[in-house]
Amino acid sequence: MIDLNGKKILFLSVSFFNYEKAIAKRLSDFGAEVDFYDERPSNSNISKGIIRLNKKWYHLKINAYYNRILNEIKNKKYDYFFLIKGEATPSFFLEKIKDSNPGIKMIYYNFDPLTEYPDLIDNLKFFDKKFTFEYRDSVNYNMNFRPLFYVDEYKNLNHDTGAAIYDMVFIGSAHTDRYIVGEKIRAVADKLKLNSYFYYYAMGKIAFRLKKIIDKNLKQFDIKKVSFEKLNHQQIIDFYRKTKSVVDINKPFQNGLTIRTFEVLASGKKLITTNSDIINYPFYSPDNVLVIDRENIQMNPEFFKIDFKKLNQDVLYKMSLDSFIECLFGDAQDDYWNSFRK
């Protein structure tokens, strides 16, 4: 177990379904003193859209926000600076943190492909340790490879022996071709007489309607099938409790595994995924994971009749949030994760 007792950490992260809060709490559990800030000045749909499209249009607000952070922490010294994604984080802020904290360890993590966010590449030079969930980015940008994690609430579901009422469940945000692929999966499930439930989530009605106009993948989306209410972890866990398997539809240009992958397998549920790269991970087993082609969806009904094969405890630990933190703040785990690549 890594020793962070008394270490001072400045932690900035994009907001992602409260996982940033779970990370901050666990760092505190390890004895660290954590100052946390959202890396975006605002999480409104408009703000997110502007930052993603062209953050130069938003630079005055971004600069004011980051100067306020600098003012708030001006009398503090940190052992670590930890940034997750950093879509809005300006270079002047990173320079100032390094200059004002001699000897600080700068740690970066990204859970999105850099091909989708090329503006992030230039800031990599500020970091001592750089991690990505995408194997290809680890090779292309000389980064450490560390997949995502699960939080313990999902592992605790392993002890639940209640009967499942669904054969498969999908819970996810509406983006790229998810709806198109999801509805194809639902149609195949119906033909096989499998009981399914699909929950598509969107951030807001106005933003979704606008996106639907310009995104060809969303033009086919039946708005009656989208929800504008975000499910919390407990609600998601309740759905997992009722199902035999969970469907995961990755972005078509993404090879890194979604956090859903880790939660599902840690909870003792089977996974149906469009991400074929999962065969290169230590927890892959055809008994537990059904890989499907998003262009030609086929499912073997026998998959749903075979019991979940329990994961090795060492592998389960490597998938955990604790192992994730140990990797980023301690020894990198590239040798372990890369050893399973075929």
From TrEMBL:
Protein name, as recorded: Lipopolysaccharide biosynthesis protein
Lineage, opening ranks: Bacteria, Pseudomonadati, Bacteroidota, Flavobacteriia, Flavobacteriales
